[in-house]
Amino acid sequence: MSKTAVKKLHWRSKVLDSFVPLQGSSGELGLAIGGGADYGEFPFVTSAPGGGLTVGDIILEIGGTPVLGMTLGDVRGILNSCPHPIRIKTVSPGPTLCKDLRLYLSKCFTPGSVDSQLQQVIRENLYLRAVPFSGTHTVC
Fold it and tell me: In what residue span(s) does the PDZ domain sit (predicted)?
């Protein structure tokens, strides 16, 4: 008997596009996020109002802006500046794309592939937020 190879779906085919409205009369978003590049993680959902978002989902984009490789403060800033309802693209973590940003960046992908392109976006976001350091120290 031959074994049938089960082809795993790439994480890109599992991206969920959601709209998060303000909640009730209080006008709060009802969405909380964690992670961020400052913690070595992808930004992810820590509390969700429903509507397709799940706690633990990795946040790829907010309002059309890729947020991978951004600090938690920058991601929250984008979240707070978007018009409502906020469009958010997420994906459930899996074997290739988990919460660990460093692990993902350490992997080798085929040049030009979706994963390679995503690594480039992450690196660009990281470099934009890096503080240059010359290595010299001056004592006053």
Answer: 19-94
As a whole number, mean pLDDT of residues 71-83 equals 90
Cβ 78 vs Cβ 63: under 8 Å: yes
Quote the number of domains for the chain.
1
Kindly state whether residue 140 falls inside one of the protein's structural domains.
no
pLDDT in tens, 86-109: 899 999 998 888 899 889 999 999
Cross-strand partners of 23:
28
Query: CB of 60 within 8 A of CB of 89?
Result: yes
Q: What is the pTM of this model?
A: 0.80
Give the domain range for residue 50.
Answer: 11-128
Q: Is 105 helix (H, G, I), strand (E, B) or coil?
A: helix
> Domain holding 98: CATH number?
2.30.42.10
